[in-house]
Write a structure and sequence with these properties.
The protein is 0% helix and 47% strand. It has one domain. A four-stranded mixed sheet has the order 4-3-8-10, with no helix packed on it. By secondary structure, the chain is mainly beta. The chain is built from no helices and ten strands.
Length: 120
C-alpha cells in the first residue's frame, strides 16, 4: 500500500510510525519546475532521506537535467518512498536515476515506491 502524504505548510509530511519494530524508511522528494525568463528553473526541491536530488545541470540543448537518488543501496521491505514532481506550463526537464536500483526480497512488510508527476 502506497504511503499517504498530507499537505503541510512546509511541504508534505507522512506521520512517523510509532512502532519501533518497523523496518524500512520513509523517504520523500518534492520538486517544482517553473518557467522564468524563457527558461525552466527548479523553483523548489525538498527531500527526506533516503531520497534526494543532485545539483541541477543542463544538457547541450539547454534542457535542465537532474539525477534522482536513493543512496541507501536499494529498496527493502517496509520502505515507503514517494516522489512528487510538479511541472508548471511550458517547462521541460530531463529526470534520471542511476542505471539500477536494487529491490530486495522481503518476507514481511512490502515496500512501496510511488512517483506522482503533476502538470499545470
Amino acid at each position: 500500500m502506497a504511503p499517504v502524504w498530507t499537505p503541510s505548510p512546509s511541504g508534505f509530511v507522512k506521520p512517523s510510525s510509532s512502532n519501533p519494530e518497523r523496518v524500512g524508511r520513509d523517504g520523500f522528494l518534492g520538486l517544482r519546475f517553473e518557467r522564468r525568463l524563457g527558461s525552466t528553473i527548479l523553483a523548489r526541491c525538498r527531500f527526506k532521506l533516503p531520497l534526494q536530488a543532485l545539483t541541477l545541470t543542463e544538457l547541450a540543448d539547454g534542457t535542465p537535467y537532474l539525477m534522482l537518488l536513493n543512496p541507501t543501496g536499494g529498496v527493502i521491505g517496509g520502505d515507503l518512498l514517494f516522489m512528487q514532481i510538479i511541472q508548471e506550463a511550458d517547462t521541460r526537464v530531463c529526470l534520471t536515476t542511476p542505471s539500477a536500483t536494487r529491490v530486495y526480497r522481503t518476507r514481511a512488510q512490502p515496500a512501496a515506491q510511488e512517483t506522482q508527476i503533476v502538470t499545470s
